[in-house]
Amino acid sequence: MSDDNDNAYWSANLRIIAWSLVIWALVSFGFGILLRPLLAGIPVGGTDLGFWFAQQGSILVFLALIFNYAWRMNKLDREHGVDEQ
């Protein structure tokens, strides 16, 4: 890989990581803690939405982020010619 290709690869990689961290922080800290009082009136599965995000939603979003990251990195690896054969 050339230096320009290396830089493009790593900047794309860091962009994927940054967006994943932003989404994770928004869901776990934002919805689960900061916005919990606003979400308290919305019922979901016998409890309120704020509690659901704090207990279950953040875990499910985290799992979705893991699969999304793996899929996006495989796609990025193929684009830059560093995929596993």
UniProtKB/TrEMBL annotation:
The keyword tRNA processing does not apply. The keyword Transmembrane helix applies. It comes from the Bacteria. Keywords: Membrane, Transmembrane, Transmembrane helix. The chain crosses the membrane at residues 16-39, 51-71. InterPro entries: Na_symporter_ssu. Residues 7-83 form the Sodium symporter small subunit domain. This is DUF4212 domain-containing protein. It comes from Aliishimia ponticola.
